[in-house]
Amino acid sequence: MKEEPIDSIPLDNGLTLQLFNLSRPVAADRWYVGVAGEVTVFPHPALLDEAPEDVMSVVGDRVVFRQKSERHFIDEGAMEDVKKAMIQSLTATLIPYLSHPDFARRLVRKTYRDNLQRRNRQQP
Questions:
Q1: DSSP letter at 42?
Q2: N- to C-terminal Cα distance for the chain?
Q3: Which of 25, 52, 56, 66 would you label with 88, given CA atoms 20 to 30 Å apart?
Q4: Torsion 27-7-10-112 (CA) sign
Q5: Nearest CA to 72 among 5, 24, 2?
Q6: What is the mean pLDDT of the chain?
Q7: Rg of the chain, C-alpha, whole Å
Q8: Contact of 39 with 15, CB cutoff 8 Å
Q9: pLDDT tens for residues 63-120?
Q10: β-strand 30-41 against 16-21: which pairing, if any?
Q11: Which residues on adjacent β-strands are paired with residue 18?
Q12: Domains of the chain: which residue ranges?
């Protein structure tokens, strides 16, 4: 699936919300309409509660938060209106959430814990 950039919205906390169009034709005049919002956080010592080396070895050099909104089997004539409504809805909910001053730190911390738990489950 090819992702087309739609918009880039700077947030109050220094992060940037990237919007992508995921839409594609599925049959004749029917479309899958998808929009994704994505924020990339680059972990640095100020964001980390644990030792930076430990966190970086578990989460890597970036943590990505991504949320999609999608609709299936949309008429070609209604596709643009549906996509615009989805973009408005996605930005209306994501911007306040992602703009929280503590969002980046909480995302890195949650990703760190989730990845540690996943690793522990995989070990015999």
A1: -
A2: 36
A3: 25
A4: positive
A5: 24
A6: 93
A7: 18
A8: yes
A9: 999 999 999 999 999 999 999 999 999 999 999 999 999 999 999 999 988 998 988 8
A10: antiparallel
A11: 8, 38
A12: 4-119
Tokens linked to 51: 């030792």
Quick one: pLDDT at residue 101?
A: 96
Q: What are phi and psi of 39, to 5 degrees?
A: -130, 135
Question: If 0-12 CB within 10 Å is exposed, 13-18 middle and 19+ buried, where does residue 88 land?
Answer: exposed
Outline where DSSP puts E strands in 42-85: 63-75
In terms of Cα–Cα distance, which of 44, 66, 48, 16 is closest to 112? 48
Question: Which residue's structure tokens are 């949309």?
Answer: 74
- Tell me how many degrees the CA angle 21-25-31 measures, rounded to the nearest 5: 80
Q: Phi, psi (5° rounding) for residue 24? A: -160, 155
* Nearest in space to 89 (alpha carbons), one of 33, 29, 15, 30: 33
DSSP one-letter string for 30-74: EEEEEEEEEEEE---GGG-SS-HHHHHHHH-S-EEEEEEEEEEEE
The pLDDT tens digits of the residues spanning 91-107 come to 999 999 999 999 999 99
Tokens of 49: 């509660």
85 in Cβ contact with 74 (< 8 Å): no
- Strand bridging mode 4-10 / 24-27: unpaired
